């Protein structure tokens, strides 16, 4: 591997074989997190296993609190964050939803806690596999919401996530989402940054005049009447509006220290889209079969590409619109569902169609519901989705069609 | 044409009464071919004991229900009232229902030529000592009676409800005629005492209200807070807390300046500092931390923050040391301890005069004395036997 040299020495110091969860735990160590609250639920749990070991090994000094439930877990880190502790928690599936009240107030209180969401289907039926509805449930509450696709990205986005979330212009909680099993439990060789490089990139957590402390007497979240709520929501919206600029800045600095290449396309990645006519858009690990399908179809001369959305909140409205409008057809892959929604489509479909609506000339947009509950998405599935997407070009009634892929008929 | 009526009441204590008056005005309007509806000011919830609250009634002879709703229903407080009913006369000192509201005049919403109807045993002059000037003439009507206080789920059925309905007919026969009130009550209750109470209310106020000219009233001492724009306050729902601070003496403890809550009280504690045994109980037990330790080991009270709950009088072990007295007998919120320090005998005379003839018998025990709930009936204090003064002094 290549070490990137910086003024402080090697930005990466070693390589380790890590799962997605373990990579996040290493990120927590490098971020020098102060308070961790744990409560087990598959598939996110492994992050807590490794963090406890890291603390026991003396590699991180932090309060590690085992909560009574996800609600308690999320409340603990919310309060820790308000007194100036960098805090970490996480969950999956219905556990994430069990703490939903705490998730809502953490956002309105603008406390920059970082959470790992190991995406899991919402019970019932009890299922451990990936579905994105859990993390997506916070999409309207004032959260930063980001999907990573490899353990390397996962580790690095712990540092990047804290940096963005804690920026004085933002101060929003951050959900770092990763596909259950396919990433949480998937081991890859990961380059481990040095502590010095991590410190250089991520400044100490500073809440400023919002830090709850006897020397700074404030009251957080008092009861207010209707004469305040709109102004508070307006402030939170403004923070979300400032976030893209902060994300772009953070990536530029991360690239400079670690030699990565995030900043050239901060919010989504484009794969072989330069001359593409048809693209698929998706979240998370579906990128691997989709990009492989792109390569194989390209070999046959098909002009196809893949757009992997990284940041779902704030939604990269303008850049994504400018990106997608130039294609003839867009196939949106939803590893989630939105029962009873327009066209009975998925959540990503609605976001992308809404994003494209103001464009003077829009591509046909079709939707695929696939991989629910952790069902695998194959290269062949992706090739089929490209075919179906291409069929929508110029076809009457083709635009807006929602199909379920891989369901037993 | 729309008639807007607001009913100012003491939260919890008069909620059922206010709602009954509002409901019946709507029902009577409907029986006489008008359209009406009623709502409570939602921001008043949760009503804490005694917090000034409002019900509204809107009645029109010519608008559709939807138009009336559109004109009046979507507002949390009204801009103007044809009639403001005041069910407890101590609210004439002003009302502060929630933080950042400020202390608002009781006649703030009354329109030119409109009515302020106060249930009170006081004279006009005693009320006008507290009510601010308006730029135009309006009317003040007094319906004689005690403040009818009870609880949230209980209703003190002392006919105040019927007398207020009758008084409304006396002030605005176009809104509701006394005949309509009578027939409604007769039909609904089949109880002639209730009909008679309404007629009594009607006859008392009918043509016996006073025109209040623009010169009459006080200059209002309380400013209305200006709420900041969204760019002008701290993010993250973080507000400055009360700065820590303590020094011995009156108002020596730091307290909130945006919500004092003093307009919540109907009675205030009068303290005989000369009887005080420095036991600390009033200071410890006050739920609103209104007592300030003084250099002589006693406790002053900041009436701006006192909600009149009576806890101090209840726990004070010394007979007659702390006694709850009708709030309207006091002109200001100045420090009683400073008065006592300046002029001990003058203060004791003043305190006894305040407690004197108008002294109400609260349902809480004062000192170790018995609670008097009805003539001749005694209830032991705090569930134990009545203590004599000798027992108390041991």
Brief synopsis:
The complex is a heterodimer of chains A (409) and B (394). In chain A, 38% of the residues lie in helices and 21% in strands. Chain A is an alpha/beta fold.
Give a structural overview.
With 409 residues, chain A is an alpha/beta fold. Chain A has two domains: 5-258, Rossmann fold (3-Layer(aba) Sandwich), CATH 3.40.50.970; 268-405, Rossmann fold, CATH 3.40.50.920. Chain A is built from 13 helices and 18 strands. In chain A, strands 5-4-6-7-9-8-15 form a seven-stranded mixed sheet, with helices on both faces. In chain A, helix 2 links the parallel strand 4 and strand 5. In chain A, helix 3 packs parallel to helix 5 (100-108) and helix 7 packs across helix 9. Chain B folds into two domains: 3-212, Pyruvate-ferredoxin Oxidoreductase, domain 3, CATH 3.40.920.10; 262-393, Alpha-Beta Plaits (2-Layer Sandwich). In chain B, 26% of the residues lie in helices and 19% in strands. In chain B, a hairpin with a 5-residue loop joins strand 10 (291-293) and strand 11. Chain B has 394 residues and is of the alpha/beta class. Strand 11 of chain A pairs antiparallel with strand 8 of chain B.
């Amino acid at each position: 591997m290549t070490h990137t040299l910086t003024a402080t020495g090697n930005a990466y110091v070693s390589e380790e074989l890590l799962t997605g969860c373990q990579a996040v735990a290493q990120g927590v160590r490098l971020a020098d997190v102060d308070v961790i609250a744990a409560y087990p639920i598959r598939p996110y749990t492994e992050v807590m296993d490794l963090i406890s070991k890291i603390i026991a090994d003396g590699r991180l000094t932090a309060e590690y609190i085992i909560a009574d439930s996800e609600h308690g877990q999320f409340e603990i880190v919310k309060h820790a964050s308000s007194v100036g502790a960098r805090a970490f928690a996480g969950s999956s599936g219905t556990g994430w939803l069990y703490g939903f009240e705490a998730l809502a107030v953490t956002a309105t209180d603008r406390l920059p806690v970082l959470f790992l969401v190991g995406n899991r289907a919402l019970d019932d039926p009890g299922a451990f596999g990936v579905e994105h509805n859990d993390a997506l449930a916070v999409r309207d509450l004032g959260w930063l919401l980001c999907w990573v696709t490899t353990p390397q990205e996962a580790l690095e986005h712990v540092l990047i996530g804290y940096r963005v979330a804690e920026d004085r212009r933002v101060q929003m909680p951050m959900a770092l989402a990763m596909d259950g099993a396919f990433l949480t439990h998937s081991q890859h060789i990961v380059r481990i940054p040095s502590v010095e490089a991590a410190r250089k990139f991520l400044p100490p957590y500073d809440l400023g005049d919002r830090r709850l402390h006897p020397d700074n007497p404030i009251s957080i979240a008092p009861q207010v009447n209707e004469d305040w709520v709109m102004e508070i929501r307006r402030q939170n919206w403004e923070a979300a509006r400032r976030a893209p600029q902060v994300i772009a800045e953070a990536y530029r600095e991360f690239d400079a220290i670690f030699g990565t290449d995030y900043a050239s396309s901060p919010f989504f990645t484009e794969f072989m889209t330069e001359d593409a006519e048809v693209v698929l858009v998706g979240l998370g690990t579906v990128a691997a079969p989709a990009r492989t399908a792109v390569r194989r179809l390209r070999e046959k001369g098909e002009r196809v590409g893949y757009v992997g959305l990284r940041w779902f909140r704030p939604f990269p409205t303008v850049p994504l619109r400018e990106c997608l409008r130039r294609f003839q057809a867009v196939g949106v892959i939803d590893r989630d569902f939105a029962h009873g929604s327009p066209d009975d489509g998925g959540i990503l479909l609605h976001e992308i169609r809404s994003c494209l609506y103001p464009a003077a000339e829009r591509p046909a947009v079709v939707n695929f519901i696939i991989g629910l509950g952790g069902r695998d998405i194959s290269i062949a599935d992706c090739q089929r989705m490209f075919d179906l997407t291409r069929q929508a070009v110029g076809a009457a009634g083709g635009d807006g069609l929602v199909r379920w892929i891989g369901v037993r008929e | 044409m729309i008639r807007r009526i607001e009913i100012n009441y003491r939260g919890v204590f008069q909620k059922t009464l206010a709602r009954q008056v509002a409901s019946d005005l709507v029902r009577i309007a409907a029986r006489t071919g008008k359209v009406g509806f009623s709502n409570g000011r939602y921001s008043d919830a949760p009503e804490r004991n005694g917090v000034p609250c409002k019900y509204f009634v809107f009645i029109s002879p010519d608008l559709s229900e939807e138009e009336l709703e559109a004109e009046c229903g979507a507002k949390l407080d009204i801009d103007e009232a044809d009639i403001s009913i005041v069910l407890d006369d101590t609210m004439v000192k002003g009302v502060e229902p929630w933080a950042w509201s400020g202390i608002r005049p009781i006649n703030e919403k009354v329109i030119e030529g409109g009515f302020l109807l106060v249930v009170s045993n006081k004279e006009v002059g005693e009320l006008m000592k507290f009510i601010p000037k308006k730029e135009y003439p309006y009317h003040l009507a007094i319906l004689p009676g005690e403040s009818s206080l009870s609880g949230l789920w209980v209703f003190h059925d002392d006919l105040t409800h019927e007398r207020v309905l009758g008084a409304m007919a006396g002030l605005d026969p176009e809104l509701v005629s006394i005949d309509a009130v009578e027939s409604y009550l007769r039909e609904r209750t089949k109880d002639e005492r209730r009909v008679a109470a309404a007629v009594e209310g009607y006859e008392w106020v009918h043509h016996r209200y006073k025109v209040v000219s623009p010169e009459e009233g006080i200059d209002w001492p309380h400013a209305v807070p200006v709420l900041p724009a969204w760019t002008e306050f701290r993010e993250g729902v973080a507000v400055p807390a009360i700065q820590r601070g303590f020094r011995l003496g009156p108002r020596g403890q730091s307290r909130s300046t945006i919500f004092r809550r003093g307009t919540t009280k109907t009675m205030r504690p009068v303290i005989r500092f000369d009887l005080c045994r420095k036991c600390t109980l009033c200071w410890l037990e006050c739920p609103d931390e209104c007592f300030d330790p003084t250099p002589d080991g006693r406790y002053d009270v900041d009436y701006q923050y006192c909600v009149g709950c009576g806890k101090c009088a209840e726990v004070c072990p010394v007979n007659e040391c702390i006694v709850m007295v009708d709030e309207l007998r006091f002109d200001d919120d100045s420090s009683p301890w400073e008065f006592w320090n300046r002029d001990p005998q003058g203060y004791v005379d003043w305190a006894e005069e305040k407690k004197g003839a108008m002294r109400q018998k609260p349902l809480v025990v004062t000192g170790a004395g018995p609670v008097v709930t009805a003539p001749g009936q005694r209830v032991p204090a705090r569930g134990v036997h009545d203590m004599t003064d000798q027992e108390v002094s041991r």
